[in-house]
Amino acid sequence: MTLSESVIESLKKHLPCSELEVLMHTEWGSKNPDNRPLIRSELMKALNGRCLYTSISHCPDLGVAVIAPSSVGVDVEVRERVTAPVMARISKEEEMLVAPSLSSLWCAKEAAFKALRPYEQPSVLSKISIGDWQNIDSQIETYRLINASEFNSPSENRGVIVHSSSHTFSFFIFYS
């Protein structure tokens, strides 16, 4: 499975990050016990000695890695795996009500959390507040990390959710 070139271009436009690189393979899924070495190997080849930010994510049947010039996070999840009881443990009720879907909110929190690594990353996802949702089309939504200042991170940030028929992807970046 891969995202189409038009979806990748839309993703780069809405982040905004024209230099974003997205790598994705089914053999990187968590069902494959060798997924982590495969992802690392492919990332090292793609980086080719460049000093850039990276993030990885995998669900049972798919793995994704991203490369960007600023702090970035990615998450992928099988849409049906995200449930209301799980989300209630890590989200405020208001967040759940305004989010386009539970899988969108889950993936947004995960990707923002990963992008906070160089800053003051919280110990739990429930400290991350996601909002300012914008529906771009039936497949793409944007969002922001609302409480970025609590983590000593740049206030300029953007996330993009991409939905496929079975997966939700989130890409998040800090920019200036």
Ends apart, CA distance between termini: 32 Å
The main sheet comes to:
5 strands, antiparallel
Classify the secondary structure makeup into a structural class. alpha+beta
Note the overall shape: globular
The average pLDDT is 95
Radius of gyration: 15 Å
The number of distinct helices, counting runs of at least 4 residues, comes to: 5
Helicity, in percent? 25-40%
| Secondary structure tally: strands | 8
- Estimate the strand proportion: 25-35%
N-to-C order of helices and strands: HEHEEEHHHEEEE
Q: Write out the strand line-up for the largest beta sheet, numbering strands in chain order.
A: 4-8-7-6-5
Low-confidence stretches: none
Describe the structure.
The chain has 176 residues and is an alpha+beta fold. It is built from 5 helices and 8 strands, in the order H-E-H-E-E-E-H-H-H-E-E-E-E. The chain has helices spanning 5-14, 35-47, 84-90, 93-98, 102-115; strands at 21-25, 53-59, 62-68, 72-78, 130-135, 140-145, 157-163, 167-174. The strands form 2 sheets. A 5-stranded antiparallel β-sheet has the order 4-8-7-6-5, with helices on both faces. The radius of gyration is 15 Å and the shape is globular. The termini are far apart.
